[in-house]
Write a structure and sequence with these properties.
This protein has 100 residues and is mainly β. The protein folds into 2 domains: 38 residues, no CATH class; 40 residues, no CATH class. The chain is built from 2 helices and 5 strands. Strands 1-2-3 form a 3-stranded antiparallel beta sheet, with no helix packed on it. Strands 4-5 form a two-stranded antiparallel ribbon.
């Protein structure tokens, strides 16, 4: 969805479905209309990566992206910090030898 504009507690939104198979730039369905702003939900995108390296790496490093400041660090799966409920479930999908 894309918010076109907001006015008096309402949002003018456009929802489009893209053809993801044959024509990646073709919209197969689209609707635009007004909805109460209270009906809108926020989006949070989170990512979980499993990466290993034999090369020396820093204990932590910083990344600045889109006006956000991130402090990243390595953590073994067996002693990883608490993550959100959905991402935490991903750890159970790792092979047993990696989890411990």
């Amino acid at each position: 969805m894309r918010c076109e504009r907001r006015q008096a507690g309402f949002a003018h939104i456009t929802y489009a479905e893209w053809d993801r198979l044959d024509y990646l730039t073709y919209v197969s369905y689209q609707i635009t209309g007004w909805v109460p702003e209270t009906a809108l939900a926020g989006i949070e995108r989170r990512h979980f990566f499993l990466i290993s390296t034999a090369d020396p790496t820093p204990e932590h490093w910083e990344v600045h992206e889109d006006d956000h400041h991130f402090r990243l660090f390595w953590a073994p799966p067996a002693s990883s910090p608490e993550v959100g409920s959905i991402q935490g479930g991903w750890l159970t999908r790792l092979p047993e030898e990696i989890r411990h």
